[in-house]
Structures are given as structure tokens and as C-alpha cells.
């Protein structure tokens, strides 16, 4: 089996025959990518990092689910053309991240998705976007919210006005109207409304992503509220929420999508307005 030292910048990439024999597209991408000519050999740290990414791609490419076993360390080492020690280090790193589970005498297995890990990763990405944290959040959020509104309207349209969740939307909207003057309560109810729409959409992926950005989103909503109060705009967002909910309850997908899209544009417009500059919401 090739050692770490054999994977140098001077070595020719594996042949198509080697690739066909089991290297695979995953390893091909990560283990044969260009290396800095000044490096005489790939460092062990680089090899472990590439093997780790190769395992992640293997899980994704082969559609492995929670509880599914990975190939043995030996099989992975042969497939990725690295030593077993490198594979073990890569698997240990993924175990520490909660992506795989390692137990003595058994092959590593895929762990269930950890929502806290997804939440941390997305929140960190938003927080570290230089000067564009709010824009990054809205880029992620807007299309999901519009899609969720349409799906929620479709479900209620199919089940009728007495559909599960329709009553919750009505009650939330009433509470929001009563709390419109409360700068703490209204943003919280706003979050609950959007979460309920995502739940009604019956899309775990949509709900999961929106839940993952809930912390930076709530911070942004509170700061937007301050901007609205300073500019005398409190109340405009509630009218937008009313239009969204009415369209969903009517089962009108097109109207629900349009109302949510307009709401997202209005939120971004408040942040970009001259009066908001210097105090833009920061989801960090």
C-alpha cells in the first residue's frame, strides 16, 4: 500500500486503471488535487484532512444514513491510497464532530444529524461574513421562507380551513396584533409565526435550516425593531404578516409566495435604508 511519503508533488497521479480498481471519484478529487510545487511531500495533516473530506463525500455520494456502517479502516485506506493510521485519524476527527461513531471491534457508523452542529456551522458562517452578516442571513432565509409559505398554503388548501395548524396561525396573528407596541414580545411572536409556517410546510429540510439560523435571526429582528421605531415604521411589518397569513389560510400558493417575497424585500429595504446605516442589524 502506498505510504504517505509516496504521495509527493513529483509523483504522477494515479492511472485510470488504478482509479477504476477502487480509488473512486471521491478520493480522485481530494487525493490528486494540485500540490504546491515547493512541497516535497504532502504533510500528514494534509493527508488526514483530505481523507476526512473523502469520507464525508463517500457518506454523501453513497447516500449512507444514520446507523449505516462505513467500510473498514483497511478498505478505506486502500480506496484512498493512504495508510490505515491516516484513516483512523480522519475517522477520529469525524467522531469528535459527531458525524460518525467509532466502537471497538466494529466499523465506524454514520451518526444521526446533530442539529446543534448544523446550527453552529450556519451561525458561524453568518457571523464571520465580513460586513455582510445580515445580507448573508437574508440570502439564505428569503428563498426558504417564500417556499415555506407556498407549501403551507398548498397543505391548507388541500385540507380546508379547518386544517391542522390553521387555528394556530390565526391565534398567533391575533397575539401579534395585540403585542404590536411591545418591542420585546413582537419579535418573539414574529419568530414563532415564521416557525409555524415552516412547520405547516411539512418540509423537515426547510424547518431545519430556518431553525438553525434562529439565533442570529432573532437578534436581527430585535435590531430591526429598533430601526423601525426610530423611523416610525412600526406596524408596516404587521400588515405584511397579515397578508401572508390570509393568503396561506385561503390556500392561495401564488399569493402566499408573493406576500412572503414582498415581506422579505421590505425587511432588506429597512436594513439598507440611509437611516439604518451605521446601526444595521448584525446577526453576530
Automatic annotation (TrEMBL):
Q: Which residues form the HTH gntR-type domain?
A: 45-113
Q: Where is the composition biased (Polar residues)?
A: 1-18
> Which keywords appear in this protein's UniProt record, sorted alphabetically?
DNA-binding, Transcription, Transcription regulation
Q: What GO molecular-function term can you cite, just one?
A: DNA binding
Residue ranges of the region described as Disordered: 1-32
SUPFAM superfamilies found in the cross-reference section: GntR ligand-binding domain-like, Winged helix' DNA-binding domain
- Cross-referenced PROSITE patterns, in alphabetical order? HTH_GNTR
Which branch of life, at top level? Bacteria
Q: Which residues form a coiled coil?
A: none
Pfam families reported for this sequence: FCD, GntR
Q: Which InterPro entries match?
A: GntR_C, TF_FadR/GntR_C, Tscrpt_reg_HTH_GntR, WH-like_DNA-bd_sf, WH_DNA-bd_sf
Tell me the protein's name. HTH gntR-type domain-containing protein
Q: What is the lineage of its organism?
A: Bacteria, Bacillati, Actinomycetota, Actinomycetes, Micrococcales
